[in-house]
Amino acid sequence: MRKVVLKLGGSLITDKSKPFSVRSERVLSIVEVIREAVSSGIEVVIVHGGGSFGHFAAKSEIDEKGRLTNESVPRISDAMMELNQIVMLHFLNAGLKAVSFPPHSICLASCQFSTFNCNFTPLLKAFVSGLIPVTFGDIVLGDNGCGPFIISGDDLSMMIAREIKADSVVFATDVDGVYRDPKDASSLISSIRLEDIPGIMKEIKFPSSVPDVTEGLPGKLLKIYRYLGGISSHPVVAIVNGSLKGELSAAILGRKIRGTMIY
Ligand code: IP8
């Protein structure tokens, strides 16, 4: 059976220009694609980003206090729980057996190694039991006095992909894929070899301002490289426009897409 980790980008499912606003129509259409994929036998773990919930709350905390402290954890984790509740309702209303695993209750950041340690045992149990685990980018405490740290849904997607030995990780975003120059529609990169990521990153024109607290597309590429580099048979990664139902469906099913594939 094909195993897929599907990351729903925050910019895809929320309107980042308006704090705390969900793109409900879009979530509905994504859930429909997932429902069809699941009924055709795909096993899926869902991860979603922070969008105008987590990123807005994190930016507000940094603006007000200068940095994130443990006292930022309730506000940011609550913002993410609010978004997660809305996403979960869409899944449940569509009859999908989704169950939520909030990272702030299962993960800690390692102060010594600058990595995250999560207890995925219950999530994996849910997955092998035929349920659809849903988790999300969040804020987590440090294990030894450091932090707190934002754990991106991208980190979680790669960590979970390793745990379940996923065939594919699909990043559903609000763009068609990775462009050499985002202003040039003909510069979409259709495939990248994992080992070529560092070189390609030097050639790509990324926007000069950092788009959010987890560093957008450059952060995503680096994470893909770091988490999958060194794994002999790693999952294929697809970066696809999640607002296009046909493309999203093709990416989940492992078919050809207009987007960026990382092998
Ligand atoms: O949007 C960020 O998750 P991401 C989560 O997947 C927070 O990078 C709390 C900003």
Note down, in words, how this protein is organized.
By secondary structure, the chain is α/β, with parallel strands linked by helices. It has helices spanning 10-13, 24-39, 51-65, 73-93, 121-128, 153-164, 197-203, 216-228, 245-253; strands at residues 3-8, 43-48, 98-100, 107-110, 115-118, 132-136, 138-140, 149-151, 168-173, 191-192, 236-241, 260-262. The strands form three sheets. An eight-stranded mixed sheet has the order 3-6-2-1-9-11-12-10, sandwiched between helices. The chain is globular. The model has no long low-confidence stretch (mean pLDDT 95). Bound molecules: Isopentenyl phosphate (IP8). Isopentenyl phosphate is lined by residues 10, 49-50, 54-55, 58, 76, 80, 137-139, 150, 152-154, 213-214. Isopentenyl phosphate binds at residues 10, 49-50, 54-55, 58, 76, 80, 137-139, 150, 152-154, 213-214.
Associated small molecules? Isopentenyl phosphate
What shape does the CA trace take?
globular
**Strand order, biggest sheet?**
3-6-2-1-9-11-12-10
Query: How many strands?
Result: 12
Structural class designation: alpha/beta
Order of helices and strands: EHHEHHEEEHEEEHEEHHEHE
SS summary, helix count: 9
| Percentage of residues in strands | 15-25%
Main sheet specs? 8 strands, mixed
Query: How far do the termini sit from each other?
Result: 20 Å
- Summed over residues and divided by their number, the pLDDT gives a mean of 95
Percent of residues in helices: 25-40%
Which radius of gyration do the C-alpha atoms yield?
Answer: 17 Å
Low-confidence stretches: none
